[in-house]
Structures are given as structure tokens and as C-alpha cells.
Give the backbone structure.
Amino acid sequence: MKFGIYPGGRAGTVCSNPPDPAAIGDLVDDLAGGRAFVIREYVHFFGDTTPADVVTSLGAGDELARLPMPDQWYIEAGRELDLVVSYIPQDADIPGWLAFLDTVIDRYGHLTRSLQVTLEPNFPIPLIDGNAPGVLQALTLGISHARAALDGRNRHDVRVGFSVAEPAEWLGGDGEFWQHLSTVPRRDFADHVDYVGLGLYPDAFSPVAPRGTPGDTASLTAHALHHLREHSLPRAHLPPGTPIHIAENGSPSGAGRTEQAQCDSLSDMIGTILDRSESLNITQYEMFSLRDADSGSTEPTGTLGIVTDTYKPKPAFSLYRDIVRNGGRPPSTAAGCQGDAGVDTLARRAEDTSGP
């Protein structure tokens, strides 16, 4: 399995400080330990009618000029860029969207190893693609358009996919989304999909059961993975050979939580994912995120980082570093979360492969 991270310090409109490229570089190098490592970044299509203040609120004004780190950084030291192209216009604009995909590929195609077309189009979340008019067309037409555009530039090696949010019951379910995909001929959509990403935040935005009981973080993670592979993807004509990427996975440390609780939660989630990586064809894991958007925020999105907004590592940083450096195998010592939690939990989960 490949591992990676979103290195930025923004979660939607929440961002307390600008990024520090030097700190990002040092921390990513520490996590990767000289191994191949995926870097997740985002650019946004707003169309012509989105107010300027919305663009500014997402820090998206100069995305086509530069990403947070220098271009060369994304292809050095085994790093691989996973670039998300988000569709969030206030009015449907498919011609503009397809032209924007061409522009993004012209600008960043030489750096990119995987291109995600739309961000979580299965749920109508404000400032996320599922809330944008025309998003289903943007996804289904955008996948094949991006594939053709990359192939025309001799970038046959770039993987093209999309991501969905979890779990299926969240916000009332996403049955209409998958029903729509079931009506799209395989040759027009599924045949062009190289992977499907999953955004996984089971304990970030709603209460969960106590650890070790039904409905806890680990069991919700398992449910999301199995539901996507066994129920949703077949409806869209996507076969078992289509890899799943954990495109985003995070847990907050603020708003009544602690850094220890965050570490425990991530340990449970990653352990569950690793247990099922072979049987469910999960080939990539990316954490959201490196840095807190705002360590003092009361919003869950403010404290999803494994370092604070001043780049001070939390216990989860050591946990994730050990997992990456062990190639997805549980570390032999509890250098991350301590005691009954953390890497000890990962080790126990690695021995328990009894299913969901």
C-alpha cells in the first residue's frame, strides 16, 4: 500500500496561518523516511458567477499559478502528486468545467501521478461538489475527458478517478447518486475509472459508540469500506479490480477531544483499513491532514492535523510515521500512542482478520 498526506493547513474555510514550506518539507521527509509518499493537493473550478469572497474564503485565488510547495518538490524524493480538481460553481457550467480540466492538465499534468475528478459528489455538503449544480455531468463527462486529455499529452501513466464521502447513511444516504451512475453505460464512465477514493471521517462530525463496542470508530470504518466495495461500486459497473484509495482520513483532537483520543481513533481506523487492504483491494491511504487548520477552533475541521497549526507534532504524528516506515505493518514498539492504545492496538488488529 502507498501512504501519503494532505500537507496544507486549510480545511474548507478554516485556516489560521499561511503554510510554512520549510516546516512542511521537514515534516513530510520525516514521515516518509525516504520511501515513496503521496502528496494530496486541491484546485477548484468556480465558474463565472461565484462571488469573489467565496473564492477568497477557500484560499483559492492563485491555484493555477502555484501549489503551496514549489513544482519540483512534488516530484523529488519519491513524492507523487495526487491532484484533486473540485467542481463547485454556483451555476452549472459543463463546457467551462471541461475547459478548466484541460487548463489544469496543461499546468500540472507533468507533475501529477493521479488526478481526482470532483470531490465527494455523492453528498450535498456546502462548498463541496455534491452541492454544485450539474455535478453528476461534471463527474461522468469529466472522467472520460480527463483521460483523453492526459492520453493526448502522452501521460498514460496518470491514474484518473473520483472520490465519495462516507458512510452511506450520512446525511440521509447517497442512493440517488449511485442510481444515476448505474444508468451510465460502462463504456462512457466505468471503463475510464482507474480508482475510487473514499473520504473517511467516522468520528469527526457525530458521536460514536465507546471503543470496543458496536458502532465505534473501528466498526464504522469497516462498514464504510465493505459498503463501498460490495454494494456501491457494483452499481456503477466498477469491478473488484478497481482499486479503492482512502483519499482522506482524519480525526479531530479539539472540541472536547484530546490528542490522545485522536491518536487512538486513527490507530483504530488505520488498523481496520490495513486488515482489509488485500481483501477489498485498498491500495492507497492518505491522511487529512498534516497541520491543524486552527488548533484553537471549536469546529472539528480545525484540529484534524497530526501537528498543531504551529507545526508542533501530536502523538498521532509518531504513530503515522511508524506505520509508513514499517510499510503498513504494525510497528514493533509503541512509539506513537501509548499504553493500551496506538500501535499496540494496530498490532492486535493485525492479528484479527475475522472480517467486518
